[in-house]
Amino acid sequence: MENDWGKNFLLRKFKNYLFLTFVLICTIVAVIPLFSIIGYVLVKGIGAISLDFFYKLPTPVGEVGGGMGNAIVGTGILVLLACLLGLPVGLFGGIWLAQYGQGRKGFYIRYAADVLSSIPSIVIGIFAYVLIVMTLKRFSAVAGGFALGIIMIPTVTRTTEEMIKLVPRSLYEAGLALGLPEWKVILWIIFRTAWSGVLTGIMLAVARVAGETAPLIFTAFNSPYWTLKLDQPMASMTVQIYNYAISPFQDWHAKAWAGSLTLVFIILGINLLVRRLSKRITYG
Amino acid sequence: MVNIEKLVVKKLNAWFNEKQALKEINMSVYEQQVTAIIGPSGCGKSTFIRCLNRLHETVPVASMSGEVFLDGENIFSPSMDIVKLRRRIGMVFQKPTPFPTMSIYDNVAAGIKLYGRKNQAELDEIVIKGLKRAALWEEVKDILSKPGVSLSGGQQQRLCIARALAVEPEVILLDEPCSALDPISTGKIEDLIHELKTKYTILIVTHNMQQAARVANYTGFFLLGELVEFDLTGKIFTAPTDKRTEDYVTGRFG
Q: Domains of chain B, with CATH numbers?
């Protein structure tokens, strides 16, 4: 009997080590893609990065130099347009779901938001194409912003809802007991308390749409010019990278890498910011 | 001393889903007096006072019936403005509930600031007055811009009292305001209750019978959702008429 105990112990220890090693390997495999992507993009892209790259227009084929300035600004504008649609709908939708969405209606809306978030972004692009591009009869920044805005809605709605649900009900009651109208309690006490968490959700949604390509290809299209006209085609980093990458020219390939590098770092920066923000979330 | 009926409760019933929490409560709360509600856990004490400022009905599964008159006006009548009602009947909860995003100053000012516009000088005056009346001013006058949640539990509770007082209510409901506090903070709040009753009508729910005896003019004893006995505090503790009250106050059960 005592011998068996000893054997079992060794076997157990061995199994434990085996399992731990397996888990460790899986973890390493999981993070390899992230670091290899960042590393590869860095190595390939850093060569074509220069100050010009950030503020010059793209040059025609064969001409060296130039940059992606208009595409960087274009992505910024498209994301802003997306926020104009995605934030109000998402934020107020989230508030509604958290405060009044207990019943059947809430269930269906929540379900619809979850389904919307899993619809491929290219489908949303086609929707924007039919709705706006075909109506206006041209590609436009507005159409691109609209498509990105729709993509933002479910993410913002659901994080807002979850963050508001974390605020203790006692604060809601304390606000009501002070004789404040319900909407002021919700906006100025509950929403404000949940704000840092909500902001995290907004940033994640922004990071996601900034990296979208598919819904922009046939909505905002692309543009080789500086433009602020919202009813005209507009350049974006992702579509520009796509165009450069599928071209046969060496110089454009290098610029695609440089664009990727810039985009990856913008999104990485947003994510790091989100981590900093979300660390500060505390509820009384 | 003439007793004016500030609140009159008639045939009040309350439910959570199918479960009846209050049964046919009839009771009066007198102006500028302290009325204590005692009874074992789960007897409906908190539900009772939450009916009085109509917070009970904000809980999704809650319902109620009956009448409550504030200065002769039924608070459940459709013409009653619920926001105005809650400004006349303030409340302090069991756990301190300072608003986490606001400073000490803003916490006290919240009821006024979020309700309507007031200029800075008026607001300052209201905040200072509220904090002084809640006996917190001396401790916080140099740290008004610090977060309300940075105060100790006892200070937070007095901050909540200051916040409730700042909107100038007529009645103050205290829902076990000391149960999360140490004896020193409890003493401070009891002293405060003595001060406040010269101006306000106070209704306090408490687990602690000594506390009821110390602060209250009148005491009501609740058991299983019923108001068993309501009388002058001295009478309840020395010569109760109901056997159940006697058993409870002498510590034979509960």
A: 5-96+169-249 (3.40.50.300)
